[in-house]
Amino acid sequence: MDQPRQHAIAFLEKEIKTYLALSLFLSKTRIKVDLLLGEKKVLISPSFYKERMKEAKKLVYELKRTQ
Predict the structure, then answer these.
(1) Sequence spans of domains, the chain
(2) What is the DSSP letter of 39?
(3) Using an 8 Å Cβ cutoff, are 50 and 23 in contact?
(4) In whole angstroms, what is the distance from residue 22 CA to residue 28 CA?
(5) What is the CA 2 to chain-centroid distance, rounded?
(6) Please, which pLDDT band fits residue 23 given cuts at 50, 70 and 90?
């Protein structure tokens, strides 16, 4: 596997761990964080991070599969 692909996989695997930790934290403490993005208010919840984990896992699988 080439170097850039290895770096991308390593980054995504760290990102998955971060999303998992955030999702667990937010679900256990029942915290909802309001985040301002421009003029729009976005609600961040555990499900937001679960969706990001799914996307990152899919990318890792695709990168590993297309060696």
Answers:
(1) 3-65
(2) T
(3) yes
(4) 10
(5) 23
(6) confident
